[in-house]
Amino acid sequence: MSKTLFRTRIKFCGMTRAGDVRLASELGVDAVGFVFAEGSPRRLQPEEARAMRNAMEPLVDAVALFKDNPADEVRAVLKQVRPSLLQFHGSEDDVFCKSFGVPYIKGIPMRGLDPAQRAQHAIQLLMKYPAASAFLFDGHAEGQQGGTGEVFDWSTIPTGLGKPFVLAGGLRPDNVFDAVISTLPWGVDVASGIESAPGIKDGDKMRRFVEEVRRADCHPD
After folding, report:
1. Cα(10)–Cα(24) distance, rounded to whole angstroms?
2. Ranges for the N-(5'phosphoribosyl) anthranilate isomerase (PRAI) domain (predicted)?
3. What digits encode the pLDDT tens for the residues 102-145?
């Protein structure tokens, strides 16, 4: 798909402070992510995320991220936070992911995938997650937590998905321009690349990240 047909969406993930959420909204990001995955240094309780959601400006999506959370925990987040999109990074199947009545993105670990397996990988994803609104390709290996800040081989991104994909994994202000130009993603997702510490966002990095994505969008084909 040509870049001239759309702009690259931006999601800032792992938000833990209302001020960072407010700045993200002011910078024009499309979505902010709240993490509820067990073991994540950015994990929130639903009440904490609800308070930060109130700092969001209109037309910014709230995304709730899970990794093998029980269904009752997901429902508690839905009640408290009212996310417009869910993101699953564990062994959840399509039936589970779509059972909450909210559109979902399925996170896919990409580290170690052979580029020659791209077409087969795409077929497998479409068969396993037919209800997914999009796929998010991340730089961690199977079974690991996301948000590791590791870049994966972009040539392994499956082709022929017929659905939007979001690029994640080690994106930073100094490499997101090349990432967008190289892969033409529907969106980009960043956590550690705009932080001074896990969950603590750096305002200057946030601004530069957005600037670099927009520069890539304006770059001639």
Report:
1. 10
2. 11-211
3. 999 999 988 777 777 777 888 888 899 999 999 999 986 555 55
Q: What is the C-alpha to C-alpha distance for residues 23 and 35, in angstroms, rounded to an integer? A: 18
Neighbours of 52 (CB within 10 A): 21
Q: Is the pLDDT of residue 77 over 70?
A: yes
Structural domain harbouring 21? 3-218
Residue 56 DSSP one-character state: P
Stated pTM of the model: 0.92
Measured CA to CA, the distance from residue 191 to residue 103 in angstroms comes to 21
> Which amino acid, residue 70?
P
User: Which pairing describes strands 104-109 and 85-88: parallel, antiparallel, or unpaired?
Assistant: parallel
CATH of the domain at 112: 3.20.20.70
How far apart (Å, rounded) are the C-alpha atoms in residues 135 and 169?
A: 13
Most confident of 2-6, 103-107, 110-114, 153-157: 103-107
| Tokens 């996310």, located at residue | 83
Write out pLDDT tens, residues 79-89.
999 999 999 99
The phi and psi torsions of 25 (rounded to 5 degrees) equal -65, -45
Give the count of domains, the chain: 1
Question: How would you class 169 by CB atoms within 10 Å of its CB: exposed for 0-12, middle for 13-18, buried for 19 or more?
Answer: buried
